[in-house]
Amino acid sequence: MSSIRVWKRMMRYLRPYRGWAVIAVIGTIASTGLSIAIPTILRDVVDIGIQRAEGGYMLAAGLLVVGLGVLRGVVGFAFRYFGETLSHYIAFDIRNEVYNKVQNQSFTFHDTSQTGTLITRAISDVAEIQRYFAYGLIDGINTSLLILGVTVIMFLTSPVLALITLLPLIPLAYFSRNFAMSVDPAWKKIMDRLQVLGNRIQETALGAEVVRAFAREPYEIRKFADDNEQLYQDSVTLVRRWGNYIPLSMFIIAFSTGLVLFFGGLMERSGFGGVTVGIVVSFNAYVLMLAMPIRFLGFVILLISQGISSARRVFEILDTPEKLTSKPNAQKMPDMQGVVRFENVTFAHENAGIPSLKNINLEARPGEEVALHGPTGSGESTLVDLIPPFYDVTEGAETIDGDDVREIVESEERV
What we know:
Radius of gyration: 32 Å
Shape: elongated
CATH topology of the largest domain: ABC transporter transmembrane region fold
CATH class of the largest domain: Mainly Alpha
Strand order of the largest sheet: 3-2-4-5
Helix content: over 70%
Largest sheet: 4 strands, antiparallel
Strand content: 5-15%
Distance between the termini: 29 Å
CATH superfamily of the largest domain: ABC transporter type 1, transmembrane domain
Number of domains: 2
Number of strands: 6
Oligomer: single chain
Order of helices and strands: HHHHHHHHHHEEEHEEE
């Protein structure tokens, strides 16, 4: 499944919470607009209040900035609160969906799935999806709007100075793209390593008596340490990439600030393009305002990549077909008498070349004692597991009171 398809499928979980999502987006837009307005006020303070020595204007501008700050705090709380809330509800829904899927799977699924893998995907991977909705999506929108808004305001104010100021950001955009392309496979590798460690712990905990009986503690410790070392190395590699991204983004921001001060000062002195001291001050504020979003852009890309990688792993479980299902017209089981009959039953485990049971014909009536005898691995336990049924027969039919078990349901809820 492509990353775009995985992302679209993730976004469908927003549908039950459209109202909260709308409030979060509106709060994000309002917060961005209020942030962009403050440097414009600073420009007028310098050009009007300071240069013209109008104290009343400066007082009014100061009160306006304070008011905008309070309002920005309110809308910031709104988009953060509702964004976080809907992200946790989405994680709640996905965890329930994964758990319900696992509960309805046959023993064949559990025979081929490792418990540690299921735990990792139901907890760690779902947590990454939750972080995507809480920060990757909401903060991604906030970051994109802020960059777009600042760019538009700067070009409307002074196209030439804006072009000079924003030109260094083009290489940063290219570097961010390469960073995102390298993060996705790296994070998938880390999650795979975590899954391996989870399986190691689960297997060792369940088989602790066997490990000690054969004095295999040093071997198990060494095996876990090797896997843990691989996880450490993969994590350090990802951190190294992240560490290279941050200094470069900071250098580009500092370089842009230098361009604003140098060329803005020259343009103000020569009167070119109507550039004033206030415009230079506001452009400097805009560049500093872009510093955090641009640096955070890499983090947003990382969250998106992690969310998509984790969602792909979760969807692998959700898309696993249920091999043991009742027929569409199945009826509720009537009062059971308990006559169990196997009619030419053959059963083979998944990916097994030889059937565990072949052409079994057997009848057991209430009160009868039926003995199954054979060497270990001859299929006695498998035959008993077909009765509930924990597995579905490969050929033939298994009936209870003359009804095929696939044509009855255990309760009103299972269909």
